Predict the structure.
Amino acid sequence: MGTLAEEIFSKKVGRPVKAGETVIVELDRIMSHDTMTGLAIDAMEQISDRPKISDKIVIAFDHIVPPANIEQAKAQRKIMDFIKKHDMKNFFQEGVCHQIMIEKGFVLPGNIIIGSDSHTCSYGALGAFGTGMGSTDIGVGYATGKAWFRIPESILVKVTGKFRKGVYAKDLILKIIATLGVDGANYKSLEFTGDTIKNMSIPERITLSNMAIEAGAKAGLIKADEKTVEFLKGRAVEDYTIVKAVDGKYEKIIEFKADELEPMVACPHDLDNLKNISEVQGLEIHEVFLGTCTNGRYEDFEIAARIMKGKRVNRFTRTIVTPASVSIFQTMMPSGLIKIFQDAGCIVTNPGCGPCLGRHAGVLAPGERAITTMNRNFRGRMGSPDAEIYIASPAVCAASALTGKITDPRGYLEKTR
Amino acid sequence: MPKVWKFDNNVNTDQVIPGRYYPREKVEELGDYCLCELHPNFSKEKKEGDVIVAGNNFGCGSSREYAALALRYSGVKCVIARSFARIFYRNCINVGFPILICDELFDNVQEGDEIEVELETGIIRTNGKEYRATPLPEFVMKIKEAGGIVNFLKTHDIEELK
């Protein structure tokens, strides 16, 4: 008996465990990326001369690919030397680490996975307990194959009803975070349930789980179902068993009605500064960025392309399109999405994190205002601390690129359908 | 006498150390950029042993361990907050940077106040009053006493943490 988080841990340690207990767990996968692996290697090498189980380690370069300065190039070279030295097979330079983990079947229901990135909670979309940790914990994972966890209390987030036109999973998760507050789920696990979640595609569920950390949550779990099983066919790197919550005790239950939501915009400089689109439309926009682990999947670009097809973006609005992975990019080519974006005047970049972390590929100048599909609007995140970041769905961002102002996408969706 | 630098709620790790300052070979240099955009005077005028006092959810956002390291190399003695975001909390324990949780201190100090902190006992003295930090869980104390998890694991198996 327990919440989904408790059941996953109970299964792993082989006895019933409850929130508040501290356990040491054999990890299913350990993920790290280019900016954090260096310190993890340093930590590991103080404990052990080699990774305990190198097949469980996945390293993906995504934060700054290709490197934009000498320090970054040196850091990436050091990691590649380590990978070569230990003959590690799971090394990728083809997109955002979380997308790679999910696409390549490294994330399976019931798994416990740590990653050197706070958005490792994305894996909850497949019923896996994924959580972000720092480099030292990752290095400990390399050396021992294990990590310690305090099993979190859970908040049940129940969502019912259908989204209205122009409203998406992104609007819902923004609403959930603003309701909980940016530390409303600190140390806790969010468990998403209800018919809205059940009807969501896997990419939509990833958008939801991805942003659990923005309320401070350790994980953002969704029970695996037939859609998960279908998605994993031909991908799963090993067998798995679906884990379910059984009469769990939740610290709190919060409910949302999907059909009451409007397109939302999170305003600077924290996500709980959330407004309905009608309150902010018309604000001038200098950069639009479509992509990231939150909204960089094919389905997200399809929505944006529907709005941009046959049109041009405002010529003073730098518009950047960054597919989350090579596989997504390669699906966007034959289907014509890349051409739609390029014909509209967008800059289509190589897959990766793109300008999300303010180090390359679209850094903001002082006074510039961006609207983006990413997950964080912290001051200075994308470059100058005197720039502003607004967060919204792919539809809102695409419509805003056309006009150069924050724009309600619903007018565009009616015309093109 | 060490002084207080005061910060509000939800200081995020992008603010503790903006992404463009790492990775870098000389990690110690991160101390110079710690909180440089949020509080430019802090990075210019902080003195060895000063103390950061903050509100809720200090260290939220990105998992970058560089945030804990930047604080360590900035020379501040510790951060005392009403609460910490969990990844940051773990990172500080792992790298051996002292953090203390104390709810009532925040409303009773101003920036520039003199402060004295005993890390071993969690006793905080300022403005003629004494405060006591919330003790860390036993499990976390083991890591802390070893000087971080790497030091612990040099002489113990991870299972001995239990």
